[in-house]
């Protein structure tokens, strides 16, 4: 069998997948759905925005009773509501509590809650607050809501430089930011700010997953990152892998595998964002270890043989 190819070796980054905060949020949501079913028979729980940034896991939860809405007005009066791991603006939580008669489960990640508390502390002590992160991300919007009126957001070093001279400035980071960005921003701000106070609010789980990607890129021919395309922490993993010249494929599920990408690769790494469930990672691992992969992936479209 001269043309038979050796099976592709698979290495999974460690740690990878669900972080503590997301796992906690999912468990809280499933419990909330169960309690709703027991109390009113409907089993519906409403979340303002996706509870985590993974479409496949959200679809699974929706089959159980999760209802994702975009406006508070879309939540029926008295219904059960859920505050996602990213947290919500304080005004949104207050409105939910009133509309849902207190039936609100707050699953804000403890690391995100810490960033919110630090932002509120800085505002209370008279600092201008700078949040390092994506201004459109729900976590950042929730943190901004806790930081008083004198608050700004920077997503790049050029925007950090645009802050200019300040007397008193407090810095908070989105929990999924790279530590290199926080360090570089600190160097830029130090000469321009008379009194600079910085809280490192980057989540330890985020740093661990980023370090795991840095490590694995040196031992594989290519890396597959599995996670939602709307996941900020997953995007950071892809960015890190590609910055290290590692051929990187970003997919949401194994059905998106492209056989052409595997040409010339003998060892493949798998990494996943903190909002990627174990079942998606395992599904991908099985797909890579099937006989289709061992035959070289010619014409493989990502579907399992029937």
Structure description:
This protein is of the alpha/beta class and 306 residues long. It has three domains: 9-18 and 205-294, Cobalt-precorrin-4 Transmethylase, domain 1, CATH 3.40.1010; 21-108, Rossmann fold, CATH 3.40.50; 111-202, 4-hydroxy-3-methylbut-2-enyl diphosphate reductase, catalytic domain (Cobalt-precorrin-4 Transmethylase, domain 1). It is built from eleven helices and twelve strands. It has helices at residues 20-40, 55-64, 90-99, 110-124, 138-144, 157-161, 179-189, 204-216, 232-243, 278-288, 291-294; strands at residues 9-12, 45-48, 66-69, 80-83, 104-106, 128-132, 151-154, 166-173, 193-198, 222-226, 248-251, 267-272. The strands form three sheets. A four-stranded parallel beta sheet has the order 1-12-10-11, with helices on both faces. Helix 4 packs parallel to helix 5 and helix 8 (204-216) runs parallel beside helix 9 (232-243). The longest helix has 21 residues, at 20-40. Residues 293-306 have low confidence and may be disordered.
Q: Secondary-structure map with pairings?
A:
Elements (H helix, E strand, L loop, with lengths): L8 E4 L7 H21 L4 E4 L6 H10 L1 E4 L10 E4 L6 H10 L4 E3 L3 H15 L3 E5 L5 H7 L6 E4 L2 H5 L4 E8 L5 H11 L3 E6 L5 H13 L5 E5 L5 H12 L4 E4 L15 E6 L5 H11 L2 H4 L12
Number of strands: 12
Domains (count): 3
Oligomer: single chain
Strand percentage lies at 15-25%
Name the strands of the widest sheet in spatial order: 1-12-10-11
- Span from first to last CA? 25 Å
Query: CATH homologous superfamily name of the largest domain?
Result: 4-hydroxy-3-methylbut-2-enyl diphosphate reductase, catalytic domain
Unreliable spans: 293-306
CATH architecture of the largest domain: 3-Layer(aba) Sandwich
Mean pLDDT: 90
Helix content: 25-40%
Number of helices: 11
What is the succession of H and E elements?
A: EHEHEEHEHEHEHEHEHEHEEHH
> What is the makeup of the main sheet?
4 strands, parallel
- Content-based structural category: alpha/beta
Named CATH topology of the largest domain: Cobalt-precorrin-4 Transmethylase, domain 1
């Amino acid at each position: 069998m001269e043309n038979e190819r050796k099976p592709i070796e698979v290495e999974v980054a460690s740690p990878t997948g669900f972080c503590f905060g997301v796992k906690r949020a999912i468990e809280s949501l499933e419990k909330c759905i169960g309690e709703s079913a027991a109390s009113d028979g409907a089993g519906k729980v409403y979340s303002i925005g996706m509870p985590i940034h993974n479409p496949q896991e959200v679809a699974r939860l929706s089959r159980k009773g999760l209802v994702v809405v975009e406006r508070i007005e879309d939540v029926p009066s008295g219904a059960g509501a859920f505050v996602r791991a990213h947290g919500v603006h304080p005004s949104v939580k207050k409105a939910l509590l009133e509309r849902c008669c207190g039936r609100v489960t707050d699953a804000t990640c403890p690391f995100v809650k810490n960033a919110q508390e630090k932002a509120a502390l800085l505002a209370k002590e008279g600092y201008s607050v700078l949040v390092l992160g994506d201004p459109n991300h729900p976590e950042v919007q929730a943190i901004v809501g806790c930081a008083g009126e004198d608050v700004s957001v920077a997503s790049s070093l050029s925007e950090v430089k645009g802050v200019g001279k300040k007397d008193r400035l407090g810095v908070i980071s989105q929990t999924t930011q790279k530590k290199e960005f926080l360090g570089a921003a600190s160097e830029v701000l130090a000469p321009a700010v008379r009194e600079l106070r910085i809280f490192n609010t980057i989540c330890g789980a985020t740093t661990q997953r980023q370090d795991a990607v840095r490590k694995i890129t040196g031992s594989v021919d290519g890396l597959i990152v599995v996670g939602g395309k709307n996941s900020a922490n997953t995007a950071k993993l892809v960015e890190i892998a590609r910055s290290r010249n590692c051929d990187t494929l970003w997919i949401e599920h194994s059905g998106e595998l492209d056989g052409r990408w595997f040409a010339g690769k003998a060892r493949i790494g798998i990494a996943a964002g903190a909002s990627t469930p174990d079942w998606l990672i395992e599904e991908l691992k099985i797909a890579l270890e099937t006989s289709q992969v061992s035959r070289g992936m010619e014409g493989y479209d990502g579907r399992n043989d029937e």
